[in-house]
């Protein structure tokens, strides 16, 4: 079981309106090797400010082993870090 | 029209903020607020004390200010976490932002407390209780921690009200409710009555706030002097101070500090002024601006507020010059009453290069001091605020750059980013 939010590598686009969209994410597979997944679609996103730290929360789908899988990731606005909140 | 004042107080602030950070930012599963836990200074050193504790820890009898050893005797399975003061500043700032959305007049009272003047907002939010509930729920849903809101017609009553049952509650204490809600409380619960005064009041047979309120003020004056009048007024719910909104940030640069001990000699007060000037001037220099007007404010132990200001011959951002002006103002202003809070405010800000009116007698000094300040700023920026300090602060009781969160609370900090 994953206990903590894990920093992850993400490729994202930033459009002229300042909208952020994560496109690719690098996750560990069962053998602990890194694999890049395309983010197929974003189910929802919302801005958060827990503990006064602004973040954007994305719930999105990736394709893993041929099936769609929901993941939750967050972009921390102040530190420019992406973290994986949970898979599935 | 009667005023409507809110007092907002974060429930077990440091602990709640640690809990939110761990839950929401780090993604931990345990909520510190739901287990016996505490924020404790320097867990490794035996002498650390409890800075905040959870409600379950409170049930074991753990109190804020207990030593770690005593706390562990009361509650052996107490989970202790170190403090992270930069996190608290971020939580505090975010809360103040929300308060400013609700009220045009917000006075930050401490890192986790504020007063809002909500007079005349009934058309916006409905009744005071509705507005307070909305406010408290908004803070919880957006920032993740709970607050108590006290409502009344002045600050002292609002503050007393927010201290009633916790957590996550709204309470009113209007003047007509004083007798029923405040007078039965022990006199030590009254704001501004410390342990020493409490003992003295007990010796006089005064045990409840109601008894204090109904004591002849002359008796109190005889035993406590001016302070007796203040607590008598507070016990009767009388407080004439207004919610003092700070000056808008871009109009001036100021800094103030509540001193951990009462200052009754001028030289210590001037040391505090120097440490305040140090910080104000650092900020002026960082923004490449100079100030033309310097003001000093004093709050004495009777909560009397006084201030005085002067215009300088020419604008400056040199620590020594601002401090010199502040000392001059202080000497004119101070009547010798012990001080609990000092502030420096600078205004009439001018930007960029300024033609300096050079004083015939210290023209070399200006160049030198200005270069000195620049070097000190660079060193501090690179190696931290404490890397260079004036010798006068070496052994003294005053931290060399006062204001904001007090220095003993400054470290350790969460690093920028997510620590795993
Ligand atoms: Mg509090």
TrEMBL record, chain A:
<protein>
    <submittedName>
        <fullName>Uncharacterized protein</fullName>
    </submittedName>
</protein>
From TrEMBL, chain B:
<comment type="similarity">
    <text>Belongs to the DNA polymerase type-Y family.</text>
</comment>
<dbReference type="Pfam" id="PF11798">
    <property type="entry name" value="IMS_HHH"/>
</dbReference>
<dbReference type="GO" id="GO:0003684">
    <property type="term" value="F:damaged DNA binding"/>
</dbReference>
<comment type="function">
    <text>Poorly processive, error-prone DNA polymerase involved in untargeted mutagenesis. Copies undamaged DNA at stalled replication forks, which arise in vivo from mismatched or misaligned primer ends. These misaligned primers can be extended by PolIV. Exhibits no 3'-5' exonuclease (proofreading) activity. May be involved in translesional synthesis, in conjunction with the beta clamp from PolIII.</text>
</comment>
<feature type="domain" description="UmuC">
    <location>
        <begin position="5"/>
        <end position="194"/>
    </location>
</feature>
<dbReference type="GO" id="GO:0042276">
    <property type="term" value="P:error-prone translesion synthesis"/>
</dbReference>
<feature type="binding site">
    <location>
        <position position="112"/>
    </location>
    <ligand>
        <name>Mg(2+)</name>
    </ligand>
</feature>
<dbReference type="Pfam" id="PF11799">
    <property type="entry name" value="IMS_C"/>
</dbReference>
<dbReference type="Pfam" id="PF00817">
    <property type="entry name" value="IMS"/>
</dbReference>
<dbReference type="InterPro" id="IPR036775">
    <property type="entry name" value="DNA_pol_Y-fam_lit_finger_sf"/>
</dbReference>
<keyword id="KW-0227">DNA damage</keyword>
<dbReference type="InterPro" id="IPR024728">
    <property type="entry name" value="PolY_HhH_motif"/>
</dbReference>
<dbReference type="InterPro" id="IPR050116">
    <property type="entry name" value="DNA_polymerase-Y"/>
</dbReference>
<dbReference type="InterPro" id="IPR017961">
    <property type="entry name" value="DNA_pol_Y-fam_little_finger"/>
</dbReference>
<protein>
    <recommendedName>
        <fullName>DNA polymerase IV</fullName>
        <ecNumber>2.7.7.7</ecNumber>
    </recommendedName>
</protein>
<dbReference type="InterPro" id="IPR043128">
    <property type="entry name" value="Rev_trsase/Diguanyl_cyclase"/>
</dbReference>
<dbReference type="GO" id="GO:0006281">
    <property type="term" value="P:DNA repair"/>
</dbReference>
<keyword id="KW-0963">Cytoplasm</keyword>
<comment type="subunit">
    <text>Monomer.</text>
</comment>
<dbReference type="GO" id="GO:0009432">
    <property type="term" value="P:SOS response"/>
</dbReference>
<keyword id="KW-0239">DNA-directed DNA polymerase</keyword>
<keyword id="KW-0479">Metal-binding</keyword>
